[in-house]
Amino acid sequence: MAKPAGQTSARWQVLAAARRGDLSVAQIARALGLARQGVQRIADVLEGEGLIAYADNPQHQRAKLVLLTEKGAARLGTIEMAQAGWANGLGAAFSSAELDAARTVMARVMEMMEVDEIPGN
């Protein structure tokens, strides 16, 4: 979905996190469950392309905030429109009953993961 906008899914995630405007690279990495160094590399590339900018962080002298630029917002909008079209198309391929059943199964899987109830674990 991100490919038509010239992005990868990892870059898409960082762009979406940058939209908040109040997160540092380390905070974005923690939120995404990724290594800070990897997010830093992606953020530096996105900055080089003018999609994000770094700003002073009043909470931390060295950890800059990651901000989405207008160009980045436009690119993120393109990706999100493609994702919405994909999701709508996928949803249209199933009946309401099938979607309800899938939702029920996924909710149970999430519950099991939260309490580490996975059989055989």
From TrEMBL:
CDD domains: HTH_ARSR (cd00090). It comes from the Bacteria. InterPro entries: ArsR-like_HTH, HTH_MarR-typ, MarR/SlyA-like, WH-like_DNA-bd_sf, WH_DNA-bd_sf. One of its GO terms (biological process) is response to stress. GO terms for molecular function: DNA binding; DNA-binding transcription factor activity. Residues 1-111 form the HTH marR-type domain. SMART domains: HTH_MARR. SUPFAM superfamilies: Winged helix' DNA-binding domain (SSF46785). Keywords: DNA-binding. This is DNA-binding MarR family transcriptional regulator. It comes from Rhizobium aethiopicum.
